[in-house]
């Protein structure tokens, strides 16, 4: 006996004849009659008294109506519950990003996902690129928005935008023109994070192109905000994307120009976990994330970025 059997039985019981019930369940009258006969044979009881005017429930039939009604109500409740907006899409998601990206994105992504999937439970993680790649490899997160390292072929990345890096200096540094040559980086004191932060690795690789080493004034593993404070206090210079310093540039507490000869560009991409079962509607969820990034770039909120 299945739920389908019970629903067909209930349709016959409530309509009082096979012809109306057959129309309701979408079967021929003879097919429905055979199914009810099969159910009666399986239960070894008679469910209906049959006559030319229709059918009447037997005493066991009345008892089965109670159970069939409960099954029907349960199925209707489950359908309504699971098809409601708060249960469409994933029940939870874990997203990660590097600090600079997290500051720009997490607020708008959280709002957009909550609007589209009201019942979703979100967890945001912030970490350096090396840690995020470990989380991806270990299946600790569903997806991440990251600055891509030079060797990223194995990450399966969906590149969304490119962002130019800027040389950032205090006002006391003096005029810096319209661009700062990469070759000059080794000649200025720099405030940079320690290894394995991507900016530290990048700065060292840039100066190594000219057979030189960085002139490290201070290591700062705190937030970008603290790095900017140290630079504003004339403790050294640094390299950051434009979006990280545009407010300080407006206030005049920092100055920044693009790194040039060559221009230094970083790709920002969404990467998904490969050792973690995909969440329901993962493609649609990540498309929502992508659209939020596109909106921020198009609106000018992500200064210095261009869409790929």
TrEMBL record:
<dbReference type="InterPro" id="IPR050950">
    <property type="entry name" value="HTH-type_LysR_regulators"/>
</dbReference>
<protein>
    <submittedName>
        <fullName>Transcriptional regulator, LysR family</fullName>
    </submittedName>
</protein>
<dbReference type="Pfam" id="PF03466">
    <property type="entry name" value="LysR_substrate"/>
</dbReference>
<dbReference type="InterPro" id="IPR005119">
    <property type="entry name" value="LysR_subst-bd"/>
</dbReference>
<keyword id="KW-0805">Transcription regulation</keyword>
<feature type="domain" description="HTH lysR-type">
    <location>
        <begin position="1"/>
        <end position="58"/>
    </location>
</feature>
<dbReference type="GO" id="GO:0003677">
    <property type="term" value="F:DNA binding"/>
</dbReference>
<keyword id="KW-0238">DNA-binding</keyword>
<dbReference type="GO" id="GO:0005829">
    <property type="term" value="C:cytosol"/>
</dbReference>
<dbReference type="GO" id="GO:0003700">
    <property type="term" value="F:DNA-binding transcription factor activity"/>
</dbReference>
<keyword id="KW-0804">Transcription</keyword>
<dbReference type="InterPro" id="IPR000847">
    <property type="entry name" value="LysR_HTH_N"/>
</dbReference>
<dbReference type="Pfam" id="PF00126">
    <property type="entry name" value="HTH_1"/>
</dbReference>
<dbReference type="InterPro" id="IPR036388">
    <property type="entry name" value="WH-like_DNA-bd_sf"/>
</dbReference>
<comment type="similarity">
    <text>Belongs to the LysR transcriptional regulatory family.</text>
</comment>
<dbReference type="InterPro" id="IPR036390">
    <property type="entry name" value="WH_DNA-bd_sf"/>
</dbReference>
């Amino acid at each position: 006996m299945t739920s389908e059997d019970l629903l067909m039985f209930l349709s016959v019981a409530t309509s009082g004849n096979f012809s109306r019930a057959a129309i309701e369940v979408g079967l021929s009258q003879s097919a429905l009659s055979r199914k009810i006969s099969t159910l009666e044979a399986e239960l070894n009881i008679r469910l209906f008294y049959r006559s030319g005017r229709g059918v009447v429930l037997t005493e066991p039939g009345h008892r089965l109506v109670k159970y069939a009604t409960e099954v029907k109500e349960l199925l209707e409740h489950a359908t309504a519950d699971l098809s409601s907006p708060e249960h469409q899409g994933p029940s939870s998601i874990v997203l990660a990003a590097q600090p600079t990206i997290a500051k720009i994105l997490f607020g708008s992504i959280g709002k957009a996902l909550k609007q589209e999937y009201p019942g979703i439970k979100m967890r945001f993680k912030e970490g350096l690129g090396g840690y995020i790649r470990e989380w991806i490899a270990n299946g600790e997160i569903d997806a991440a928005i990251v600055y891509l390292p030079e060797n990223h072929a194995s990450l399966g990345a969906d590149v969304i935008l490119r962002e130019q890096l800027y040389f950032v200096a205090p006002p006391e540094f003096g005029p810096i023109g319209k661009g700062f040559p990469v070759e000059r980086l080794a000649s200025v004191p720099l405030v940079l994070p320690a290894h394995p932060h991507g900016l530290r690795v990048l700065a060292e690789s840039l100066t190594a192109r000219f057979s030189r080493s960085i002139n490290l004034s201070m290591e700062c593993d705190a937030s970008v905000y603290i790095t900017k404070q140290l630079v504003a206090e004339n403790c050294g210079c640094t390299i950051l994307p434009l979006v990280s310093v545009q407010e300080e540039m407006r206030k005049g507490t920092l100055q920044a120009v693009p790194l040039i000869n060559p221009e230094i560009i970083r790709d920002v991409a969404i990467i998904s976990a490969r050792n973690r079962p995909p969440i329901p509607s993962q493609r649609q969820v990540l498309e929502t994330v992508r659209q939020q990034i596109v909106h921020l770039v198009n609106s000018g909120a992500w200064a210095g970025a261009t869409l790929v």
